[in-house]
Amino acid sequence: MPDRMIDGSRWLLVVAASIAASLGVWGGAADGSPSVNAQAPGFRWLQPQRTPHGWKLARLPSGKTTFAYPRTWRPIRTDPGTASVALLGNGRSIRGYLNLTPRQGTETLANWPSFRIKHLGDESSTDVRLIASAHHLAFRSGRGTCVIDSYRTSRARYREVACLVAGTRTSSVVVGAAPSKTWAQQAGTIERAISSLRTH
């Protein structure tokens, strides 16, 4: 979660050194039919696409999963084995956050909505609200289950999109979040980044 990145010493080191993903060619869905996403309320923005021109790639250490992000966002150090970028505001506050993590627990495409909501609560978030969820969503190379939710931390209320995406050999979680009060300003970038995700 974004607040944990701010509070951690690793976060501060990376901020001091540097700084816890579109306007490009549209690609086809995994099966060549984006209609699956078009029929999912709340996820019509999810249109699988190649890396937007001028954007960078964030990738897991394995190199098997990537997403694109604008050059104005900066890589940040979070948990080992993950990839995170953020858009920083005044006072090093997080205006937008994207994270990519390998599947690590008992999460599945079937249980992802309940798993994610429970996970947020386990990480000390409060007032967690599920806004929308959808299964069988098409990504560039795989299928996914996604949720849109909101939660409160000690600093602010956040809104996020979190997806578990299964490729042919690996499964990964991609999360995009921003403060709820400025979500409208960052939603387009976060949605484009998530739409660019590619896994193997």
The span between the termini is 25 Å
- Global geometry: globular
The main pleated sheet reads as: 7 strands, antiparallel
Considering DSSP H and I runs of 4 or more, what fraction of the residues is helical?
10-25%
User: Tally the helices: what do you get?
Assistant: 5
Give me the secondary-structure topology.
Layout: H1 2-7, H2 9-17, H3 35-38, E1 56-59, E2 65-69, E3 74-76, E4 83-88, E5 94-102, H4 112-122, E6 126-139, E7 142-152, E8 157-166, E9 171-179, H5 183-195, E10 198-199
Antiparallel strand pairs: 1-2, 2-10, 3-4, 4-5, 5-9, 6-7, 7-8, 8-9
Overview of the structural elements:
- It is a single chain.
- It contains 5 helices and 10 strands; from the N terminus they run H-H-H-E-E-E-E-E-H-E-E-E-E-H-E.
- It has helices at about 1-5, 10-15, 35-40, 110-120, 185-195; strands at about 55-60, 65-70, 75, 85-90, 95-100, 125-140, 140-150, 155-165, 170-180, 200.
- The protein has a 7-stranded antiparallel β-sheet with strand order 3-4-5-9-8-7-6, with helices on both faces. Strands 1-2-10 form a 3-stranded antiparallel β-sheet.
- The chain is globular, with a radius of gyration of 16 Å.
- Residues about 5-35 have low confidence and may be disordered.
